[in-house]
Amino acid sequence: MNEDNAAPFLLTYFDGFKKLFHRFLQVKGPSVDWAKISRPPEELIQPYDRIKARGLPDNIAVSLNKLAVVKLNGGLGTSMGCKGPKSLISVRNENTFLDLTVKQIEHLNKTFNADVPLVLMNSFNTDEDTKKILQKYKHHQVKIHTFNQSRYPRINKESLLPIAKSMGTSGENAEAWYPPGHGDIYAIDLFILNHLMSQPADKRCEFIMEVTDKTRADVKGGTLIQYEDRLRLLEIAQVPKAHVDEFKSVTKFKIFNTNNLWISLPAIKRLQEKNSMDLEIIVNPKTLDGGLNVIQLETAVGAAIKSFNNAMGVNVPRSRFLPVKTSSDLLLVMSNLYTLDAGSLTMSKKREFPTTPHVKLGSSFTKVQEFLARFENIPDMLELDHLTVSGDVTFGKNVSLKGTVIIIANHGDRIDIPAGAMLENKIVSGNLRILDH
């Protein structure tokens, strides 16, 4: 979007930012009183199996036609060394995240003769590239709509003034703006949809947050709490320093927010008209390339849960939560741990444990291009529990990894795992070169 076209939108964005900034200046100290926090009552966090056990009615298509799927599509693939929107990174068999999303919804529409639209929430970073790529879905049975999330100015941590020199988003202004949002990949679940639609009018659930059991990898994830008789999302940024370890504890706060939300549109309209959706402000500190300390004022959409009636959490299986934020996550979804069916990635039935392995790839694997160059093909990981790879390491064809595998090439060394190798509960270190001759 060029600056001339952007003018009317910028006025709207600035109005939104002005309100956010005004609230930020008024709020002092943590937004929760730790003494008032308690774990939510069991009936407010329903196990997914209980919802699934109710089955589906014959007329589920009626509910589907009341559904719109909104995907956050504002993030760039820069943290993984990719240009353009993160949703355009290839995940499986040349399919990008966006391809998988379109296939999932198209499959639903064809199966149930429904008309579920896909709405992409782009940002100023992704809008142009996304619109170009949407041409290829013209003949798919999915209506695709896009809109732009807000464009807010980063502010100097010391002076609290915007660092932008003009309205532009290029050159010296490239780091002056941010889009306040993020997202992951999910399939649509008919059982949760049916649960939402089948409640009596006076008990209509207006907001469902999908949560899943915490593991050590998720200790920073937001959790649901009971606070002043309402369900509320608690993010780590809101926790007083003295209680951060307690917040991270897997015993006290057993679940975390997956950011998959089911929200009633009439309820959103009602709350917006009354201006009563009060979202806590998250202050996100960043250091820019030149060393300047800035802050981004953000709000989490899940924080709105406290404003809705009869809100609840649904504790879904871990396999439903598939974030891809790093190349380590990408390795998991590209592997034989998952099978691809109609755009949905599901845990392979051949894996004996429902948990995903813990994978930590070193800095040589950060960028997607480098990551792909280091694997001749993706290893068999069906029986893997833990993989750590550090340094200059490559994998030949048809490698199999089982149990706990740690591969460390020290500085100046290189390890080539040979084609067909099977590593089970092994630590590999030193230098191993395999050269063609």
Automatic annotation (TrEMBL):
Substrate binds at residue 182. It comes from the Eukaryota. The keyword Transferase applies. Its EC number is 2.7.7.9. Pathway: Glycan biosynthesis; glycogen biosynthesis. One of its GO terms (biological process) is UDP-alpha-D-glucose metabolic process. GO terms for molecular function: UTP:glucose-1-phosphate uridylyltransferase activity. It is an enzyme of class 2 (transferase). The keyword Transferase applies. Keywords: Nucleotidyltransferase, Transferase. It catalyses: alpha-D-glucose 1-phosphate + UTP + H(+) = UDP-alpha-D-glucose + diphosphate. Pfam families: UDPGP (PF01704). Belongs to the UDPGP type 1 family. Homooctamer. PANTHER family: PTHR43511. UTP--glucose-1-phosphate uridylyltransferase catalyzing the conversion of glucose-1-phosphate into UDP-glucose, a crucial precursor for the production of glycogen. This is UTP--glucose-1-phosphate uridylyltransferase. It comes from Astatotilapia calliptera. The lineage of its organism: Eukaryota, Metazoa, Chordata, Craniata, Vertebrata.
